[in-house]
Design a protein that fits this description.
- The protein is mainly β and 880 residues long.
- It is built from 5 helices and 49 strands.
- The protein has a 26-stranded antiparallel β-barrel.
- A hairpin with a 4-residue loop joins strand 23 and strand 24.
- About 3% of the residues have low confidence.
Length: 880
């Protein structure tokens, strides 16, 4: 045999061996994406005999040789390790060469023994820094969506109007769906539209990091909720509902969830004219969502204000709407390292109400009384798209790209009658164009340190056009015969920013963080009120750089976190019409310190103090009048100075949601120096506000107490919340002397709900709101609102459910202001079916108007609004 034939033979032997040799490859990791080392990976047959095995490496990788196994037989892949739940799945060996296994192990759950009920799933469980709520344990039968169940869970607080969620007093950062973030900052899209029937558990995850590479490194105090769906809902599920009844009331919609190993999609479309708001945006009361609050940091200012409802009664009782809302949320995994997320929201509404106002102004040496009626319409339209791309470059580095586009239009139409003599028409068209693009880079240096970088830009434009008729006579302060008064305003803001951070944990348990940020802002305002010859053309450029250093260290049971920030502002302001040009450079130091003591794992006392200095925004620098509302003109006497805010706070907190036990006390003090003050000039048909700078101080002192306890002797949960705030400030009314004003507000709420293992349960929420004003030490306007919500819940079995609720509202300083809402709900859900039928009746007593009182230091408004009248709906819901 020559050498050539010998080499051919050797090659064929190795080639044949490589063809024959097969193996199973994969990675084992935990719920947080960290690799699990030394996990036992086994291949077993149908008789549970081990045929092959291997241990996972430090990286979590494993490989098992299966070349000698029968590819046609049934086999199982088993992964085991102490403190983790055993993973088991069936595998087909004939297809194994083309598959890479990514196996996620769940931590073993620790159950608090006092809450274990024999034969029942415990309502709350704990694992590591995660608390798990079993959804079925907190249902009373009245729930439609998961937000309704969250309101019943101890330690979780849901704002009725905005939908924002708090856990142990901390705001929720994100709401995840089976561990993935489909909704980003608009998490109310999920909580207000995902059916409560398909969610098995709600996980409250503390010390949560959005970036998996920073888990255990970032000193995070963030909290996220994870909605875990029931088994069998992992492929495709959803629901459709339809409610229709008298007065042509309709509430209908469809939602769908598609979950697979590579793709997760949540979509919905809905319509209702029953006053319900299932979208993240609230155009009736203008309460901002979490996403809108964050976006406002970069958006230009809206100089002509939209009219919004301010009051205590639920907006569902008041507003008449025609809301179309659609949303598409998709997370697609291109491979193990790359994924992208698409979020699209579309909102279109037609809001309306009718109101009557009696406005009493307490002016120096006189009292002015105005009577006003208003027929109001608002037609908002919003299209918003978010596109995110995530790329994990390696086990220690990642890139994230985030883009946002927003197109919003709001048309507001008011028809008013003032003092029964003058009819006035207001028409405001506001538009909002905004885009933002951001790049994030993360480099994990080691298990204790990381470096991040963020850069990007945003651009926003808000053009507004207001038309008033008949024409306003500004010299005589009334309406006059004539055509129209026009106010236009256009604000723009472009922002470039760069931010880099280096942070980590030390072996001693201490942590540190340094941050360098550079922000360039270019903002402008153009406005024209031609009839009054009032124009503004202001332009401000700010180059803002800052360096922050923070170090947290522990001593015994104390943790100290001193922090300081060095800021430099280079500002260029121009007002071409006023021939004002101001350039200055200012350097400030802002210190901050936090000291906390942990008495045990659940009890902590924290004190924090800080000082912040910042320049005035462009909103306080325009000189000529702008009609900022329907009948309000606003201007400034600008002063280029820095405002100063000093804050000090004390918090004592003990939270044990697993034992249905939590209490918290907060005390905060704010001191505002070098602020702007206002002179209010009140006339018969409109008001003028002039804001001016004074080296004076405003202060606010607030206290808040929260107590929650499960009362085992009566199977009831009690929750008490009390907030008290004192604000001391100064102002002028009709060119008076500078007045010392003190506003005092108290809110107390008591929640009681029984959890008897019987057909009948009760729920009651009692609330008191007290507002009081003192002017120059003398008692001023005073108002008290009493609110009570009582529910009688009947659930004789799992098929039938009914409830009767009575809401009452009463104010002590108004005549005939008591109003009562009687609602009824009946549902029928046959056993082993996926549909529900029912009846919903709201406002059965058919109250048509509600009178509320709005007060300040110089006025008292009696506000009578139209209500959503009685309506009865036949309802149907099907889960699929």
């Amino acid at each position: 045999m020559n050498k050539f034939h010998f080499y051919i033979l050797i090659f064929l032997l190795f080639w044949a061996e490589s063809i024959h040799a097969q193996s199973i490859k994969g990675t084992v990791y935990d719920l947080y994406g960290d690799p699990v080392a030394s996990a036992m990976v086994e291949i077993r047959n149908a008789d549970d005999l081990i045929l092959a095995f291997a241990l996972s490496k430090k990286s979590g990788d494993f490989e098992i040789n299966i070349s000698e196994l029968n590819p046609s037989a049934n086999h199982f892949l088993i992964v085991r390790k102490i403190n983790f739940v055993t993973h088991k799945q069936q595998v087909q060996l004939s297809e194994i060469s083309s598959k890479f296994f990514e196996i996620q192990l769940e931590d073993t759950v620790t159950i608090l023994q006092p809450l274990v009920v024999q034969g029942e799933i415990p309502p709350i469980k704990e694992k590591s820094d995660t608390v798990i709520y079993h959804v079925e344990s907190f249902k009373d039968g009245s729930e439609k969506v998961i937000e309704d169940v969250l309101k019943n869970m101890p330690g979780i607080d849901v704002d009725e109007e905005s939908g924002t969620i708090k856990y142990k007093g901390m705001p929720i950062e994100k709401v995840l769906l089976d561990g993935d973030d489909l909704f980003d900052r608009n998490y109310t899209t999920g909580t207000r539209n995902i059916s409560a029937d398909i969610v098995k558990d709600v996980e409250a995850i503390e010390n949560w990091s959005e970036n998996k590479l920073l888990k255990g490194i970032e000193n995070s105090s963030k909290v996220a909720l994870n909605l875990k769906l029931k088994k069998g809902k992992s492929d495709f599920s959803g629901n459709a509902h339809a409610e229709a009844g008298v007065e042509n009331r309709i509430n209908a919609g469809i939602t769908g969830i598609l979950l697979s190993s590579k793709n997760k999609i949540f979509g919905l479309t809905s319509f209702n004219n029953t006053g319900v708001n299932n979208s993240p945006s609230d155009y009736y009361s203008a309460i901002l969502s979490k996403a809108e609050n964050e976006r406002n940091t970069f958006q230009p200012f809206r100089y002509i204000e939209e009219e919004a409802y301010l009051g205590r009664i639920s907006t569902t009782r008041l507003k008449r709407n025609n809301l179309w809302y659609s949303s598409l949320n998709e997370l697609y995994k291109l491979n193990d390292k790359m994924d992208f997320r698409l979020i699209f929201n579309f909102t279109q509404d037609f809001l309306s109400h009718y109101l009557q106002d009696t406005k009493k102004y307490q002016l120096p040496n006189e009292e002015l009384v105005l009577y006003e009626t208003e027929d109001f319409q608002k037609r908002p339209k919003l299209a918003q798209t978010n596109l995110d791309f995530n790329w994990q470059l390696s086990n220690n580095s990642s890139i994230q790209l985030k883009s946002e586009w927003l197109d919003e239009s709001i048309l507001s139409i008011n028809q008013k009658n003032v003092n029964y003599t003058t009819d006035a028409n207001y028409k405001l068209l506001s538009k909002n164009y905004f885009t933002s693009n951001r790049l994030f880079y993360t480099q994990k240096i080691n298990q204790q340190q990381a470096w991040t970088m963020e850069s990007g830009f945003s651009s926003g434009t808000i053009p507004q056009n207001l038309t008033l008729s008949p024409q306003i006579n500004f010299e005589e302060h009334n309406f006059s015969t004539g055509n129209e008064t026009h106010q236009v305003a256009k604000s723009q803001r472009d922002v470039l920013f760069f931010n880099t951070s280096y942070f980590g944990n030390l072996n001693s348990g201490n942590n540190f963080e340094t941050n360098l940020a550079i922000i360039y802002s270019n903002e402008s305002l153009e406005s024209a009120l031609s009839q009054k010859n009032s124009f503004n053309h202001s332009h401000q450029q700010i180059l803002h750089s800052e360096f922050t250093g923070k170090y947290g260290f522990k001593w015994n049971k104390f943790e100290f976190t001193p922090e300081f920030t060095l800021k430099n502002y280079q500002i260029n302001f121009e007002d071409n019409l006023q021939s004002i040009q101001n350039q200055f450079n200012n350097f400030v130091i802002n210190p901050k310190i936090s000291i906390s003591k942990k008495f045990d794992a659940d009890t902590q006392l924290t004190w924090m103090a800080s000082m912040d200095q910042a320049p005035q925004s462009l909103n306080y620098l325009f000189s000529n009048f702008i009609i900022s509302g329907n009948r309000v003109l606003k201007r400034n006497l600008p002063q280029f100075n820095f405002s100063e805010t000093i804050m000090s706070g004390l918090q004592f907190k003990r939270a044990k949601p697993m034992q249905f036990h939590e209490y918290e006390f907060k005390l905060n003090y704010f001191r505002f120096k070098n602020a702007y003050f206002s002179n209010h000039e009140i006339f018969n048909n409109f008001s003028e506000i002039t804001r001016f700078y004074l080296p004076e101080t405003n202060t606010t002192l607030s206290a808040e107490a929260t107590y929650e306890q499960f009362l085992s002797f009566m199977y009831s949960t009690a929750r008490l919340i009390a907030r008290y705030r004192i604000s001391d400030y100064k102002n002028m009314v009709n060119n008076s002397d500078l007045r010392d004003v003190s506003s005092r507000n108290l809110m107390t709420r008591l929640f009681l709900k029984t959890g008897f293992k019987s057909a009948v349960n009760l729920q009651n929420i009692f609330t008191i709101h007290i507002a009081n004003y003192l002017v120059d030490g003398k008692k001023g306007n005073y108002n008290t609102l009493y609110q009570n919500n009582f529910k009688f819940l009947v659930r004789p079995n799992k098929v039938w459910f009914s409830s009767i609720s009575l809401d009452s509202y009463h104010q002590n300083n108004s005549k005939n202001t008591a109003v009562f809402f009687l609602d009824y709900n009946l549902r029928f859900n046959p056993a082993k079916t996926n549909y529900t039928l029912g009846i919903e009746a709201r406002n059965l007593l058919n109250y048509k108007y509600y009178t509320t009182s709005l007060i300040s230091d110089y006025y008292n408004f009696e506000n009578r609004r139209s209500l959503n009248t009685r309506h009865i709906l036949l309802t149907a819901r099907i889960n699929f």
